[in-house]
Design a protein that fits this description.
The protein has 532 residues and is mainly beta. The chain has two helices and 37 strands. A hairpin with a 4-residue loop joins strand 19 and strand 20. The protein is elongated. The C terminus is likely disordered.
Length: 532
């Protein structure tokens, strides 16, 4: 038959095929719609994270201070502070951003010393974007404790695991009930090994943060370490020169291991510089198994030799050996304060001498008049010193120098000592008029004997209370300016030396009369001529 229709079987097959096609189409559309919603929600979450970054840019004090912990700000806060407009879902409806423990927020976490990581969790009308991890990382400590006291160093391992990722760790060790070490938070990279090698009772508490900011913690049992100490007396020291006093030369030292139980040892020099007032620790020999080692100490200052020794069990000892002192720098050239400034005086006086001594310190001061024979000042171990008084008459240079405790001698300084306590002899006076009257001007010639400082000047007086100085009169004998005024009077003469000593007074009489006598008119005599 040419116009035959579909059989029932064919119709049922067609209907079945159409049903399958419709089902597949609906599932595909639903999948596309779901992916579109997720994509939209993820983009909204990214906008929320950007708003969170702006918030923390304005509130930097709220950023985490250590690696691991998180700080969070809720979406509700960001909307309230207008960092972002209210978030809507894919249908344009306002999101319900919190439901029980599902609260939309932005997390910030410090991931190293300089960087922060921002992430967000967005809950919107039953849909979620981002993570809301609340599971802390797992910490394993092995071994957890010691059953009996360990007689050698013990290694404790700390391992951290997490499904999301481990960010940081920290551990705190207590020893004999007191905090011994706190690492602070550091980035976690691999299993941490802790070596306990000192005697005592320890506990370890470990902490860790995952990349979501969840913190885990674990505390160990007790570890007891009892290691026999090494024998530091098994190391001997010899030195040249072998003295603990200050030296002005290098010192050679040799250390030798004499105890075979010492497996390794270290030598340090705790060096104190008196000039800078600082102590520096120099490692002369790193930890080694060598049996002998020699060193030369050359730096100025105090060298405290220290050793540390270790036995095969990890036992340790430490000991300070001999202290050696080196000063190869002489004190500075003295400065001298002379109260007379090197001029003549008739009084006793002392000098003040000063130096700078950087290392060993002043031992004593000494003086000389010929730079060959030196006399030590007693009790003079100070950088600024006042000498005993100079009292003997002299006109001589004195030389001063200083020694430090290492035997270094400063350059020589000098000053003049000029002391004259003897007054000039009483003047002798040569008076050309010999004290008689004259009508002419005349000068006196005066003379004295002055043994030490020399004549400074002559002076005269008519009453022995008011004295007049002769100018340019520093010589003996000396001729005075001429006496010219009429007078009949004693003139007193004396002389001063350059130390201020005054001679006894000499005198002579000055008699000058330049006025001629006046004639008085007499009465006229009347003569009578006789007559016859």
């Amino acid at each position: 038959m040419k116009n035959r229709g579909f059989t029932m079987v064919e119709l049922l097959s067609v209907i079945a095929i159409l049903g399958i096609l419709v089902t597949m189409a609906v599932a595909g559309v639903r999948g596309i719609l779901n992916r579109t919603k997720e994509s939209y929600l993820d983009s909204q979450n990214k906008m929320v994270v950007l708003a969170g970054k702006s918030y923390y840019a304005d509130h930097r004090s709220r950023l985490p201070k250590v690696i691991g912990p998180i700080h969070e700000v809720t979406l509700e806060t960001l909307v309230g502070l207008k960092y972002i407009d209210p978030v809507k879902d894919a249908n344009g409806e306002d999101c319900v951003i919190a439901d029980g423990d599902k609260v939309s927020k932005v997390y910030v976490q410090k991931i190293n010393e300089e960087e922060y990581k921002y992430s967000g969790y967005l809950y919107c009308n039953g849909e979620e974007s981002g993570t809301n991890d609340t599971t802390p990382p797992t910490i394993t400590i092995s071994p957890m404790q010691t059953a009996v006291a360990a007689k050698a160093a013990l290694t404790v391992n700390i391992k951290v695991t997490d499904d999301i990722g481990v960010l940081s760790y920290r551990y705190v060790i207590t020893k004999d009930g007191k905090e011994y070490k706190d690492t602070g938070y550091k980035n976690y990279k691999k299993q941490i090994s802790i070596k306990l090698n000192e005697n005592g009772k320890y506990k370890i508490k470990a902490y860790a943060y995952d990349t979501s900011g969840n913190r885990g913690s674990k505390e160990s049992g007790e570890y007891e370490i009892k290691i026999a100490a090494a024998n530091c007396n098994g190391i001997t020291l010899t030195a040249s020169p072998n003295s603990t006093a200050w030296q002005n030369k290098n010192i050679s030292i040799t250390l030798k291991r004499t105890d075979s139980s010492i497996e390794s040892w270290t030598v340090k020099d705790s060096y104190y510089n008196n000039s800078s007032k600082k102590t520096t620790e120099n490692v002369l020999m790193k930890r080694t198994a060598k049996g002998q080692k020699s060193f030369t100490l050359s730096d100025n200052g105090e060298h405290q030799i220290q050793i540390e020794a270790y036995n095969s069990a990890g036992g340790k000892c430490s000991k300070d050996l001999t202290k050696y002192k080196i000063d190869k720098v002489k004190p500075t050239k003295p400065t001298i304060t002379n109260p007379t400034n090197g001029n003549w005086t008739n009084k006793n006086f002392s000098l003040t001498v000063t130096t700078t001594e950087a290392h060993s310190g002043v031992d004593y001061w000494e003086y000389s008049y010929d730079q060959k024979t030196w006399t030590k000042y007693a009790d003079s171990a100070k950088s600024s010193f006042t000498t005993t008084p100079f009292s003997a008459e002299r006109n001589q240079a004195v030389y001063i120098r200083v020694r430090d405790k290492a035997g270094n001698i400063s350059d020589v300084a000098s000053t003049m000592i000029r002391i004259d306590k003897t007054k000039p002899s009483k003047p002798s006076i040569t008076n050309p008029s010999k004290g008689n009257w004259t009508n002419k001007n005349f000068s006196l010639t005066v003379k004295t004997t002055e043994k030490h400082s020399g004549v400074d000047y002559w002076e005269y007086s008519y009453n022995k209370s008011s004295w007049t100085k002769y100018a340019s009169s520093s010589k003996t004998p000396f001729t005075t300016t001429a006496f010219s005024a009429e007078r009949n009077q004693a003139a007193y003469i004396r002389v001063r030396d350059k130390a201020g000593n005054i001679s006894d007074v000499a005198s002579t009489t000055i008699r000058i009369d330049k006025t001629k006598p006046k004639c008085s008119p007499s009465k006229s005599n009347t003569y009578t001529k006789g007559g016859v």
